[in-house]
Design brief:
mainly alpha; Helix Hairpins; 3 helices; elongated
Length: about 60
Amino acid sequence: MKYTELADKSAKELAQLLKEKKVLLFTLKQKLKTMQLTNPNEIREVRKDIARIKTAISALQQKG
């Protein structure tokens, strides 16, 4: 997911997407602890997506 994809979305959509990504991060961490995660780099990607979403939310708040 790129920041340009997020810039078009509304605050409500971004909040929903953030919630989904946080749940996904939680499940990935649980899988990592139980040795069920095949690709640990997924955690890094989800964390970066969360940061991008938070940045988009912050930019919307500063605009208006």
